[in-house]
Amino acid sequence: MADSREISEVEIARHNIKTDLWLVIHGKVYDVTKYLEDHPGGAQALIEVAGQDATAAFEDVGHSADSREIMEQFIVGKAMDSRENSNEDSKPKRAIVIARDQATSSVGPDLQEHETSRFILKSALIGSTAFLGYEGFARLPAIGWLKTQHGGFWQGFIIASVAGISVLTGVILYAERVMSLTGKTTPYSWPAHYKPHRSIIKPITENIGWLKPQEYQKLPLFKNEKLSADTCRLTFKLPSSNQILGLPIGQHIAIRAEIDGKPVGDQVEFRGPKGQMRYRKGMAKDIGMIAGGTGITPMYQLIRAICEDDKDDTKVTLLYGNNTEQDILLRSELDAFTSAYPQKFKYENILSRPGSTWSGKKGFISKDLVKEKLPPPSPDSKILLCGPPGLINAMTKSLAELGFDKPNAVSKLSDQVFLF
């Protein structure tokens, strides 16, 4: 059978042109030459990973079960020495992260009650053991000096001391257990977001929260807020108030449901994290952002992370395009960051249909405005793009004319121009 044939990395790499295109996904080798024109994401997305392992790009896009079935007919073998056919290898790894603050505790109320019960039991056992040991010890003939006429005083003193030591030992054991599990000194849950006291040493690339990259899970709709004429903010509730979502800075999630008209309490399916952007301090000295409408969402993640990290000196400039003033999302939050961190963050609103009272920029984000406001092309600068297709197409052309690299159909973290 074709799918049992083992193919070397060298041979796979030879098939790297439009008329002869192979790629690897989860250890299986596919000849997708005849599928190029039918690919929903366009031929260019496949050409960019020709002759390579395309597993990460395939999963980040979030293909359906139907697309996986379609791919079966193009299998020509499996990559030599590949371990991807093992289910274990494709599962997300869980990591213990050292020396960094987390936004929430991983310990729920049930576990806290369990630890409290263990503390009480330990204290009782230690105290009982110590008391019985004392009584038995004092009754030995050779230790008669403990039973003098003042024995009542000494007996009470020793029992009180043992009881105090037992309680103190139990408290220490309980506190030590809580701190080892949560990294904090109180049993209460953290807020959804807080400013870290220590900078993040390296990006979290493994899934350590509620999210699962390969599996959809359901969450109930908790709140539905209308932000503008065509935008709502949907808030979903995690199973426990002590859980974290597990979404690294810059990444996103896949949502599967019919959201329109969902009443509060209905469930929606989530899968992730997804995407190639995993922000880390020092990724660039200057970051230029171009966003339109809801394209502000991934930008805001990075803006908040950079501004709230005292040891991150990255400078961020955002050009944010919308139709009307009412369409500007997260405006109060963005304004607050410009006021609190003027040395790190600044942004400009551009409106295509402004009202008569608008005194800011009008029209569309232009090449001249990009040249004026954003950092020039250099090894230390990066441009991030997110928004409607019209904005992306216009900005891709303008950035290339200004000397920036042309972005790939599927962006990688190392790209000078990154498309969310």
TrEMBL record:
Cofactors per UniProt?
Answer: FAD
For this UniProt record, give its keywords in alphabetical order, as a comma-separated list: FAD, Flavoprotein, Heme, Iron, Membrane, Metal-binding, Mitochondrion, Mitochondrion outer membrane, NAD, Oxidoreductase, Transmembrane, Transmembrane helix
Q: List the subcellular locations.
A: Mitochondrion outer membrane
The UniProt record lists the keyword 4Fe-4S: no
InterPro entries for this protein: CBR-like, Cbr1-like_FAD-bd_dom, Cyt_B5-like_heme/steroid-bd, Cyt_B5-like_heme/steroid_sf, Cyt_B5_heme-BS, Flavoprot_Pyr_Nucl_cyt_Rdtase, FNR_nucleotide-bd, OxRdtase_FAD/NAD-bd
CDD domains, sorted: cyt_b5_reduct_like
Q: Where is the Cytochrome b5 heme-binding domain?
A: 4-80
- The answer to keyword NAD applying to this record is yes
TM helices/strands, residue ranges: 119-140, 152-175
Can you cite an annotated GO cellular component?
mitochondrial outer membrane
Which GO molecular function annotations are given, in alphabetical order?
heme binding; metal ion binding; oxidoreductase activity
Q: Which Pfam families would you find in this protein's record?
A: Cyt-b5 (PF00173), FAD_binding_6 (PF00970), NAD_binding_1 (PF00175)
Where FAD is bound, by residue?
297
What topology does it adopt in the membrane? Single-pass membrane protein
What family, per the record?
A: Belongs to the cytochrome b5 family. Belongs to the flavoprotein pyridine nucleotide cytochrome reductase family.
The protein here is known as: Cytochrome b5 heme-binding domain-containing protein
Gene source species: Oidiodendron maius (strain Zn)
